[in-house]
Amino acid sequence: MKKVAVLLGGCGVYDGTELHESVLALLEIAKAGASYQCFAPNIPQLHVVNHLTGEVVEQESRNVLVESARIARGEIKSVDELNIAEFDALIIPGGFGAAKNLCNFAVAGAEHQVEPSVKQFISQFADADKPVGFICISPVMIPQLYGQGVSGTIGSDTDTAAAFEQQGGQHKAASVHEIVVDEQHKVVSTPAYMLASDIVEAHSGISKLVVKVLQMA
User: Its function (predicted)?
Assistant: First the structure.
């Protein structure tokens, strides 16, 4: 049985991991006969957002690992607990947490940096030549992790695509139903809610991504 690590960045689209994307990815992994283990960095969130109003809650702080445990039903590990030998692949859902907690793209744009513990975590899969699937906004981290010339997609947003290329990547525009595969680096990406208007559209690309990642594992 193939085993997939799933990297979360909190809980909730505006300040953490996108719930639909994460659940769809977990479901597709399980339906394919593989198993999964969720991970998250043990760090503070950038901020907390009231998902009813969309406003930042100034007086509240939360921990990314603790919040991610909500999605994982408590079955989650810190990124520093990874034993790379136990896993065949990695999948990273999106949501603003990927751009606020896993890296600081939401604040720094093209000058963003991947959070150090997250970079070390993902780099172990890259160094071991194990496939990684990036969903939604999480592909903005790809060039920094894989270097010049690596290809990926965030969909069709021109500013985000430009930032991707400014960091050395080759951005390929894709529809919500498509995946972009970099065979050399074993990187798969799909736009999901960067373009999806509903959960059915988000599922279309995510299901293809999971299948491809497991094929490459």
Answer: Displays glyoxalase activity, catalyzing the conversion of glyoxal to glycolate.
